[in-house]
Structures are given as C-alpha cells and as structure tokens.
Amino acid sequence: MSSPQRADRTPHPSDRVVTSLRERKKAKTRRTIQEEALRLFAEQGYEATTIEQIAEAAEVSPSTFFRYFPTKEDVVARGDYDQIILEMIKAQPPDLPPLTALRTAFRTAFASMRAEELDKVLARAKLSASVPALRARTLDGLFDTIDMLAGAVAERAGRDPRDLAVRALVGAVMGVLLPAMFTWVERGGATPLPDLVDEALGYLEAGLPI
C-alpha cells in the first residue's frame, strides 16, 4: 500500500507555471489600469477623472481597481521601478563601493526601459508636480524608496539599515536624483532621463564640486 501524499511535497512544475501565468496576468491588469488612467488624466484632467471611469476604460470592476491601487493617487504614485532598481543593485559586483554600485544600478535600470515606459514615467512625474494631492502621496513613496535603498546598501556593506552613515548616503543619492527628475520634467523629456540621472550621481560621486 502506498503511503499518503505529503502535504509539503515539492510543487509540480505545472504548479509553478500556473503561478507564473497568474503573476503575468496580474501585472498586465495593473499596467492596463495605469495606462488607461494616465490616458484619461491627459484627456480630461486628473480631478475630473473618476475611479469608475478608469475601471470602465480598463475593462475591470471598481473593486478590481482597488485590489491593485488603494486610491486614485496610487495610480500615479505607485510603480514597479523600485523592484527593478533593487534587482540591479543586487547584481552589482560586491567589491564596488556603495555609491558606485548605486550609480551603475540606476544607469542600467533606466537605460533598459523602453521609450513607452519612459513616456509613462514622464506623464506620472508631470502629474505629481502639478497636483497637490499627488505631491503629498509622492513624498510618501519617496520614504518607501529610501527604506528600500537603505536596506540594499546596508546588505552590501554588512551594516544596519538604520545606521546614520547608510541613511546619509541614501539621502544624498535621493537629493541629487530629485533635481535630475525635475530637470527631465521641465525639459519635457528632451534630455534622456538615464543621462540626467547618471550625470547627477556622477556629480555626487565626485564630491559635489562647485
């Protein structure tokens, strides 16, 4: 008689495929909601666009919208780029100094983005700069990004992410990235974002000479 099947058996490969398909479907739905929201914001304005209109345009229910984005502000403030940057940081050689590793990771991450992805980032950045509620929500997102970067730097350096040195480094990085983003928005995307980000981080790496 065969023994009962263990509840903690190794997942069958087909189980992993199903999970992967589900994740891809979720990512596609998330992108569709965000793309339709940005289109409607551009056509009729942020304030005039309702969640119901976004859901209808994305062919999902309002309840589905809220599963992906808790608020309308989150459609603009939330992105998948932190995870991409985190992966790029982890991929850097362990002997690179932290700031050099961050500069290389950001340059690689932004340079790998397709033109349509950068267009979407630019649209979100313009909205965040012009709508007060979005500016506040974007600030919250910056704190999340700082926590993410501090964790990545601390892991590479074998330090506590709460160490002042770690926080100061990450704060300095964000301090030069923000003007790079503002310049990109002011120029309407005319200067490539990867170039501006790399120039800003190179300036920091050189010790901020004036």
UniProtKB/TrEMBL annotation:
It holds the Pfam family TetR_C_14. The chain crosses the membrane at residues 164-185. PROSITE patterns: HTH_TETR_2. Coiled coil: none annotated. Keywords: DNA-binding, Membrane, Transcription, Transcription regulation, Transmembrane, Transmembrane helix. Gene3D superfamilies: Homeodomain-like (1.10.10.60), Tetracycline Repressor, domain 2 (1.10.357.10). InterPro entries: Homeodomain-like_sf, HTH-type_TetR-like_transc_reg, HTH_TetR, MftR_C. Residues 27-87 form the HTH tetR-type domain. This is TetR family transcriptional regulator. It comes from Microbispora siamensis.
